[in-house]
Amino acid sequence: MRLLIRNIKELVQTEDVPVNRVCGKDMARISTVRDAFLLVENGFILDFGAMQDITGSKNWPEKEPEKVIDASGKYVFPSFCDPHTHLVFAGSREQEFVDKIRGLSYSEIAKRGGGILNSARWLHETSEDELFNQSMNRINEIIGFGTGAVEIKSGYGLNTLDELKMLRVIRRIKENTLLEVKSTFLGAHAFPEEFRNDHEKYIEQIINEMIPMIASEELADYIDVFCDTGFFTVDETEKILMAGMKFGLLPKLHANQLDYSGGIQVGVKYNALSVDHLECTGEEDIKCMLGSDTMPTLLPGSSFFLRMHYPPAREMIDAGLPVALASDFNPGSSPSGNMKLISSLGCIKLRMIPEEVINAATINSACAMGLSDTHGSIARGKVANLFITKEMPSYSYFFYAFGSNLIDKVILKGIIYPPSPL
Ligand code: NIG
Ligand code: FE
Fold first, then answer.
1. Does ligand 1 have an atom closer than 6 angstroms to the CB of 119?
2. Is the CB of 328 within 6 Å of ligand 1?
3. What is the value of pTM for the model shown?
4. Ligand 1 pocket: which of 112, 189, 304 to mutate (most atoms <8 Å of CB)?
5. What is the DSSP pairing of strand 386-391 with strand 324-325?
6. Looking at residue 331, what DSSP letter applies?
């Protein structure tokens, strides 16, 4: 099956020689092709280039491709990669939203037994089928927003059976969507009520019961810990990461959201794929990440929603670090999986220029979920996950018009979404 997109006003984020990630000053540059074509075969990108070279392409088919789309006046972007979400959850928490408007802080809500524990109660009472249906609605929503790969965490179970329930739902999502899905075990998201005064015992349960069962059913790719003041300490985090790594789970961490917690250092020490949040990041933390393979992943949706300060993206990039963006889609601190909006927040609140947010929300965010080889750019041989915009004056307009829906068509694995008879 071949699909040709022709007369593209500008094809964005192209790569002739694919890279794993983009750092520092290089983040301010992207490659594009104006007046371009893109040829897709069996779900993969076969070729791209300027319209004037189209028939000279060595991959040019003898007969017309089965499907041709004219993209005059429109832009084509690689799909967003969203490397940090909690989109499997039950119900919603708008009561806490109102409590926060009235003045309570995120930490105060958590201390009262609200927050993550509130979602854990809802999840316990919700059947696996119902949880799957609610989560699939969110999956279909983010596909419409231009996301082509997503990482989803457990962490609202907080006991063995409910953590397994969440991870099985994530597996079912993998089997039922065109989105690329990676799954992360986050049993160490909060201490359940009954272990409030016996942290050791809950950690034992994570290490001796949850991790081995999850590994034996191959339910997770990665392991995460909420390493922060009031949640898991650095020592507890190390113990849990080491246990997960023994079973082949690579670490990704929640670090330095609420405090200068030492989470960044643990992440780097264990070669985590990413350290995420980083609202509280100082010079020492930046130095520690330089020279490591760990991707600093910023979640401006949660700073926005919680009215908390933003991570120092500019300082990180100016120091030479790569930066990735993610939505953190969850019911408590970022109830949106809209990566276009997150990218606009990257521009507006993190002072990243459009080229930097494009790199942060595509190739670097693919890297933060171990997918740069196959996703995150328009490159020959990569999966054909992309979107076509409505007519626009420039690619920067996409982020500038932060409240407009500018996506015209989504293509996942070479298939126009929702799948239509071709
Ligand atoms: O990434 N920080 C920890 N976990 C989530 C929030 C989860 C919740 O409040 O339900 C986050 O912001
Ligand atoms: Fe999170």
1. yes
2. yes
3. 0.97
4. 189
5. unpaired
6. T
Helix (H) or strand (E) holding 142: helix 128-144
Q: Provide φ and ψ at 316, rounded to 5°.
A: -65, -50
Whether the CA torsion 152, 155, 159, 160 is positive or negative: it is positive
Structure tokens at 31: 């490659």
List the Cα angle 277/213/210 in 5-degree steps: 45
Torsions phi, psi for 187 (to 5 deg): -60, -30
* Ligand closest in space to the Cα of 302: 1
Q: From ligand 2's centre to the CA of 254, what distance in Å? A: 6
Query: In 221-320, which ranges are continuous DSSP H helix?
Result: 234-246, 263-269, 283-289, 300-306, 313-318
> Which residues have C-beta within 8 Å of that of residue 239, sequence separation ≥ 6?
203, 207
pLDDT bucket at 422, cuts 50 / 70 / 90:
very low
Centroid of ligand 1 to alpha carbon of 166 (angstroms): 16
Same fold, 2-78+377-417 and 80-367: no
Rounded to an integer, what is the distance from CA 255 to the centroid of its chain?
16
Question: Hey, whose CA ends up nearest to atom 1 of ligand 1?
Answer: 328
Q: Does residue 331 have its Cβ closer than 6 Å to ligand 1?
A: yes
Distance CA 32, CA 230 (A): 46
Contact 258, 289 (CB under 8 A): no
Q: Whole-angstrom Cα distance, residue 195 to residue 203?
A: 9
Place of tokens 């930097």: 356
Q: Looking at residue 378, what DSSP letter applies?
A: B
Between the CA atoms of 160, 161, 167 and 173, what dihedral angle is there, to the nearest 10 degrees? Answer: -170
Contact indicator for 139, 157 with CB cutoff of 8 Å: no
Instruction: Enter the tokens of residue 82.
Output: 């969203």
- The architecture in CATH of the region 80-367 reads Alpha-Beta Barrel (3.20)
Question: For the chain, what are the domain ranges?
Answer: 2-78+377-417, 80-367
294 lines ligand 1 (CB under 6 A): no
Using a 6 Å cutoff on CB, does residue 332 contact ligand 1? yes
Architecture of domain 2-78+377-417: Roll (2.30)
Q: How far is the CA of 85 from the centre of ligand 2 (A)?
A: 6
Q: What tens digit of pLDDT does each residue of 205-261 get?
A: 999 999 999 999 999 999 999 999 989 999 999 999 999 999 999 999 999 999 998
Which atom, in ligand 1's list, is nearest to the CA of 332?
A: 9
